[in-house]
Amino acid sequence: MSQSNTRDGKNRRANIAATTPGEESGLVAERIRVTIDGTLLIDNVDCTVARGSLSALVGPNGAGKSTLLRALTAVQAPISGTVQFGDEDLLNMPRRARARLAAFVEQDATTDSAFTVEMVVKLGRLPHQSLWEADSAESTAIVASSLDTVGMTDFRYREFHSLSGGEKQRVMLARALAQQPQLLTLDEPTNHLDIAAQLSVLELLAELRGTGVTVLAALHDLSLAASYCDHIIVLSRGRVVAAGATEVVLTEQLIADVYGVTASILRNPVTGKPVIGFSPAAP
Amino acid sequence: MSALTYPVLARVAVVAGVSVVALGGCAATPTALDAPTTTAQRVELSNCGFDVSFDAAPERVITIKSSTTEMLLALGLGDRIIGTAFQDGPVPEQWASDAAGLTLIAERVPSEEAVLDLEPDLVFAGWESTFSADAAGERADLTSFGINTFVSPSACQSAEQPAQLSFDNVFSDIETVAAIFQVDATELVNAQRAQLEAIEANGNSRTALWYSSGSDTPYVGAGIGAPQLLLDTVGLTNIAADVNATWAPYNWEAVVDADPDFIVLVDADWNSAENKIGVLEANPATANLSAVKAGRYLVVPFAASEAGVRSVDAAESLSAQIAEFDG
Amino acid sequence: MAKVSPLALGSALAVALVVSITVAVTIGPADIRFDEVWRSIASHLGVGVSPLSELRDGIVWQLRLPRVLTAAAVGAGLALSGAVMQAITRNPLADPYLLGLSSGAALGAVSVLLLGAAVLLPLAAFIGALLALTLTLLLAGSLGAITPSRTVLAGIAVSALASAITSFVIFWSVTGDSYREVLSWLLGSLSGARWPAVAITMAAIIIIGIPVMMTGRLLDSFAFGDLQAASLGVNVSATRWGLLGASALVTGAMVSVSGSIGFVGLILPHAVRLLVGPGHRALLPLSALLGAVFLVWADTLARTLFDPREIPVGIVTAMIGAPVFAFLLTRRKSST
């Protein structure tokens, strides 16, 4: 396994070749700094996500994954830095235009409102509608197709509250898809889900690749990240430690350095994808 | 014999009364309360449902509200008043000199401590509400301090409220107070009766509104209290006579519907007759009332509008004002 | 499926409102016939001649009609503000008075009532409401970033302070039966509603209320929190403060005219929610319509139940509102 990109913990501009030559560039973020309540949470991060790829953002708790994701889509704007998506300057765009371009799925979405599944998904049409206009036929069709993509069409009129964790997550994903984004960022979409649900969410994200949507998901499960994501960005204490093709970046040494545990990278006999086993750090 | 209200009759137990008669006191008319003597007589009665007893005539009295102050002045007992409170207006001329020396201890209701500080033996109130813990003190409380409490019987609300106030109630109030102070009220009462007889009932069943206060919702004299009594005495019909209360909140629509011939305005320092005229004229609905357009207002000073020694004067004044409009 | 179609409910309520106003104006202590009432109103609008004497005509045109119209506007404004406050603070127990508005207005009103300058009442009440709101926001801001929960807490503190001062002012200076006027105001009363009150409240509804009613989608976006709303392209703080401010202005205008009528802003949005679900696009305008119909009838009851005595309408809304609220609470438990 090549160890060319890691080791010294310093920030590096990740050198990721576009997977499809001739396509527009994907997400390019430079010198992102985020300070909240006086604490520097993201320290001069550069990162790049190829267009149309499914990339993972990983790192230990407190590394700043959520903060970075929110900064990238200006949900919680960084205090300095630039974020480009193709030709668009994400941080300085008008809000609604940005919302038509980029969608964000929050961790652990909860609501007190007794919304139905359909109403939740309809929220995704907000950037495309003015306040007073009625729901157009096109909007209704997009809602329907988003529900269909995530396989929740039968749940359309159910109350959101009554769904299981995995079902809720899929509905939130449908909501994001209803925005018709080109960039989709998700914060820990597999949190608190059982295995089957986790896999189904990631399968869905992988399918999106074919539709040209660029997906960046913060994941805490390295095996899942390794299994599904072509590219990976490793964050530790507000800094990018490594970034690049998963097979290349994710080494046992890197994992040991970042997570403080001993890792063993194996291979899943069924899928052929890497599986990571952990044991306590050597004394 | 004056028709004392039943509870008073039943409860007044003059212990040595019989013996006084036997001693040949100079009682003019045979009432249940005999002529004053200097011997101490115990007077017991129920006042608004509260039992009170006087071993001797009170000597140090605090009066709350003008009605009680003026009652004592009328009975020539001004020298027993050690302090007054919550007065409603200037004292009428005939008692002005007696009133000159009176000390006002509070603009509104005095606190219990202020009352105790003066060491009274009686607190005589014109409104029953002044006897509460956050005001002058609960009646039982004051009694335990050896201070008697008395409310003008016509003003009782918690109990023993007159079902329909009459001048008999008013006069019996005077007589009851006189009995407590062991003085003779006969002359006063007779004079008032005579004055009452002489009043010309020139209302001729014309209608009247008794407007006490309030702007959005008028507060009016209703069917069973002093306003009704005074209006009846001069022969005016109260438009709110069917409301079973002494005073009550009313509504302007009913007033406009009735279009009263006269409007009686109660004049108090804190809510003047002028103020009420302003309200009537500012309200586009009431501005068209015939009484407002013609200025047919009858004014009654607040202190005289409650049952007391000025009630007869108030009725007389109303009659005179009506005569002025008619003449 | 929505339980009741919003469009159906909206149409029903709109019709109900027109009918309610039409009928309520003909009800009152004075005995005036239905046709006489409407011929009188028509004559003021330039059609025909009034069949009533000038005085009785005044009953209809100067007393009843402005009062009924004001009741409709106040009911609409309070219900709308309640729905907005519940959405912004994400608190189902929120009402329009949450930010110290009614306590501030009460202080202004009571002070002016006891000084005898009742003419200045609406202005004093409005200023009192806005002062209390300013104090609330300053207090919330002093705790750090202004969040909905901080604002609510600050509002509670300011309400308590204003109420304390109001109580003191009442206790210190009230005489004779001005207790009654003050109490009537504090309970909420429409007995003073004349044409100026109609102007104030209708202006508030038309200029501020109607634009607010159209922001339903924005309020829906807050369902999953500020971050998700921001990701949907909503300007979170501008929306929140804009709606808060608009709601406060509407409430201030209503309170200045009618005192603090309770339960309308708290209960009616919940009732509408039970019928058509939580989507604000329907909830806001339907709450306003229901509020209007409700208060027209509550006020009619207030002025005729004990004919010829009037009671403050706040008593009627409380007596209807409290048991309905209890009922709604039990229903909510099963649906949440």
In words, what does this structure look like?
The complex is a heterotrimer of chains A (283), B (327) and C (336). Helix content of chain A is 29%, strand content 26%. Chain A has helices spanning 65-72, 95-101, 117-123, 137-149, 165-178, 195-208, 222-228, 246-249, 252-259, and strands spanning 27-36, 39-49, 54-58, 80-85, 88-89, 102-105, 183-187, 214-218, 231-236, 239-245, 262-267, 274-279. In chain A, the strands form three sheets. A six-stranded mixed sheet of chain A has the order 6-7-8-3-9-10, with helices on both faces. In chain A, strand 1 and strand 2 (39-49) form a beta hairpin. In chain A, helix 4 (137-149) packs antiparallel against helix 5 (165-178) and helix 5 (165-178) packs parallel to helix 6. Chain A starts with 26 loop residues before the first strand and ends with a strand. Chain B contains 14 helices and 13 strands. Chain B folds into three domains: 10-53, no CATH class; 56-194, Rossmann fold, CATH 3.40.50; 199-326, Rossmann fold (3-Layer(aba) Sandwich), CATH 3.40.50. With 327 residues, chain B is an alpha/beta fold. Chain B has helices at 6-11, 17-23, 66-74, 93-100, 112-117, 139-144, 167-181, 186-198, 226-234, 252-258, 273-282, 290-294, 302-305, 311-326, and strands spanning 43-47, 50-54, 61-64, 81-85, 104-106, 122-125, 148-151, 207-213, 219-221, 237-238, 247-249, 262-267, 297-301. By secondary structure, chain C is mostly helical. Chain C has a single domain, classed as ABC transporter involved in vitamin B12 uptake, BtuC (Orthogonal Bundle). Chain C is 75% helix and 0% strand. Chain C contains 14 helices and no strands. In chain C, helix 3 runs antiparallel to helix 11 (236-258). The longest helix of chain C is centred in the N-terminal third of the chain and has 35 residues, at 54-88. The model of chain C has no long low-confidence stretch (mean pLDDT 88).
